[in-house]
Specification:
Elements (H helix, E strand, L loop, with lengths): L1 H8 L1 H10 L1 H12 L8 E4 L7 H4 L3 E3 L3 H9 L3 E3 L13 E7 L8 H11 E12 L4 H8 L15 H10 L2 E11 L13 E2 L4 E10 L2
Parallel strand pairs: 1-2, 1-4, 2-3, 4-5
Antiparallel strand pairs: 5-8, 6-7, 6-8
């Protein structure tokens, strides 16, 4: 897939973004921390270079890009090189699954969500972070897709679309939080707050529960 090829070729550049935009990265981590369990067996699907697994102590990840997986392994994460739409796990394996800015890069979002649900234990938690297409920053990313090497292959979703997909695969108890408001000043260094709900923030975190 073209999206994976971009990350194969630019893994180090992708990873540097988090150092160069530390205040945005920290805001996203803070939002994810609202919903990510402090204990239990977790997996990050689309672990990338491990930037979101490390803060939460997630030791296992799935990543189709070999160069990205190599960086994640250097951070102490056991990585299976595989696709999120075909997870190499038995049913009911995990207490929670983390997925951050991944849904916009897969061809079949419903297959990805069905596989995520399959590998969670009954009552397991799903924590999904993504860019809201309808936010000012989401609209900016959308307008710049053709000139951005990472987002050229992305498909951005509204919160309502994502929530509808999640409900369709039989997750329940959906709640949201949000951060990164407006179009952030990348030079300010200010870590933005986390608020409940959605509709104002560009980075939205959805939490859901696997229902029977």
């Amino acid at each position: 897939m073209d999206a994976v090829r971009v990350f194969d070729e630019h893994a180090q550049e992708y990873d540097r973004w988090f150092d160069e935009h530390e205040h945005l990265y920290q805001a996203e981590v803070n939002a994810l921390s609202r919903f990510t369990p402090p204990a239990g067996r977790g997996v990050e699907i689309g672990v990338g270079t491990g930037r979101f697994s490390v803060p939460f102590g997630v030791k296992l990840g799935i990543e189709p890009s070999r160069p990205m997986a190599q960086v994640a392994r250097s951070r102490g994460i056991a990585v299976c090189q595989a696709w999120g739409e075909r997870l190499p796990f038995h049913d009911d394996q995990f207490d929670f699954a983390l997925m951050v800015t991944v849904i916009c890069f897969v061809a079949d979002a419903m297959a990805l969500l069905r596989e995520t649900r399959r590998v969670l234990k009954p009552g397991g938690r799903f924590i999904l972070g993504f860019i809201d297409r309808d936010s000012p920053l989401g609209q900016l990313y959308q307008s710049r897709k053709e000139s951005d090497q990472f987002y050229r292959e992305a498909r951005f979703y509204s919160v309502e679309q994502v929530a509808n997909y999640v409900r369709q695969v039989c997750f329940g108890g959906i709640t949201f939080c949000q951060t990164v408001f407006g179009v952030p000043d990348e030079t300010s260094g200010k870590v933005e707050p986390v608020r409940d709900g959605y509709g104002d923030g560009a980075f939205v975190v959805l939490r859901a529960k696997k229902t029977s």
